[in-house]
TrEMBL record:
Protein name stated in the entry: Sporulation related domain-containing protein
Residue ranges of domain SPOR in the record: 51-133
Native source organism of the sequence: Candidatus Chryseopegocella kryptomonas
InterPro entries tied to this protein: SPOR-like_dom, SPOR-like_sf
SUPFAM superfamilies for the chain: Sporulation related repeat
Pfam families: SPOR
Gene3D superfamilies: Sporulation related repeat (3.30.70.1070)
Amino acid sequence: MKRLITLFFLTAICFAQNKDSLSYYEKQFNPAIYDIKDLIFPKKFITDEDAQVISGYRVQILVTTQLDSANTVRNLAQSILSQSNFQSQKVYIIYEPPNYKVRVGDFEKLEEASLMRKFLVENGFKFAWIVNDRIKKR
């Protein structure tokens, strides 16, 4: 009896399956319209922003593995900078696994970065230090 019931359910399951299992989108897919070169080597257009990246300096104020901590420190630094002469400087979070690094500014000269470091130390970021980085040219 158990075998008969099991056989009945297995048969019902087999016939309950939809014969046309391809979705609408799978039916409409045409691989001939794709160029394999574009899939392997995607085209990259160089924008003005990409062309203006140079070697320079930033002031690093935090290294952490916690994104929440990095966001909190970035927001604090942005609020301090917005009330100073350094309003135009941006605060970046850079992810280099497994660390999040909070960096301030885009400086071409070391002297400019030193002024920012001094300002940040005076405003509570006691362990701020200057690092080499790729910056956006002003």
